[in-house]
């Protein structure tokens, strides 16, 4: 082998060995984070599908495990959380956003995906009408604590996001609930020492600058007032990034563009 070629191969091999592996960010949530295939099915887009535009993807790889229709409960009961948990390594980041589907019925023949309201330790035993299995259902806060505790046990860094707001207005501004999922998410994150992004308020403040009709036409699909179009997903992703930048001592921000 010619000496120049040998030197070139040696240099390439050394460079490859020294190049650090990209950091990893995992996303878990519902359709507002990822809809369908993640590429705009039915005109719906989740913010997780466009979040990579804001990161240096040569140093950060995003794994979007969110899936439409799931609650904090069914993401666990279907085994999806176990899959993510098995992949987590020390130093990985985990963004958590649930709430939109947690208010559904606890047990019915349509979805059976609801959780007990609040953050308490109460439970409800059911014979699931869909899965035909006996199940113990917990509160929204219980499931968030499970994600945080188990992610931390793997050495990962959990970041809780409050759910994004729907296009619901009251007195010329987006409705702000007093005691609901945004507040519960914040309380749980604080109690567990996890990072928290008040995504609900960050997005609502942006919507407030327009009219209900403008927000509907620009950011939401024609189907409903929950699922965002591409422009809405992009706005929400920008607010996630704004939230990340505001987090003190959170290493995730160093991977932003």
Automatic annotation (TrEMBL):
Residues 27-207 form the SGNH hydrolase-type esterase domain. Keywords: Hydrolase. Transmembrane segments: none annotated. Pfam families: Lipase_GDSL_2. GO terms for molecular function: hydrolase activity, acting on ester bonds. InterPro entries: RhgT-like, SGNH_hydro, SGNH_hydro_sf. Belongs to the 'GDSL' lipolytic enzyme family. This is SGNH hydrolase-type esterase domain-containing protein. It comes from Persicitalea jodogahamensis.
